[in-house]
Amino acid sequence: MPVKRSRKCKYSECGKKNILTPSGLKRWSGYCNRSCKTKRNQNHIPWLKKTIQVEFNALVREKGVCERCGNNFKVMQCSHVWSIGSHSNLRFDILNALCMCGHCHNFWWHLEPMESRDWFAKRFPQRDKYLRAVKETIKPWTVDELHKIREYIKNKDLKKLVRFA
Ligand SMILES: [Zn+2]
Ligand SMILES: [Zn+2]
Q: What is the pTM of this model?
């Protein structure tokens, strides 16, 4: 008789314990079913941030034209003015994002930070002023705000994607 093990569902509100055989354990995703997984993710800030970042970046790339050189390629990139690693509060702010071609993004924006930031400030003075004013503002993400942002992205409601309006 194979040894059965019990594993608690990763969705903590569920609380159910699942009895698994060794082969079941290998396939075990951590949840009773898809519904538990969905309920957990919808309330899990790291999952929401990761998922929304993909959707947000795709929306920015949809512009289809490089904001620096004006070329359009099949594959465009989303460039962040202030890096979302150090300025997470601006990760879903449309004023902090630029649609760029791979060349401008990788070989100019990131390789020539002085020149490119100077270009940005001259090209978009209002945005530059706004971003400088709010970039150190601490505003923790909530599940509520993240769900709203997800809606705005889905509806392509760019005006609502300004976080510190
Ligand atoms: Zn469950
Ligand atoms: Zn370009």
A: 0.89
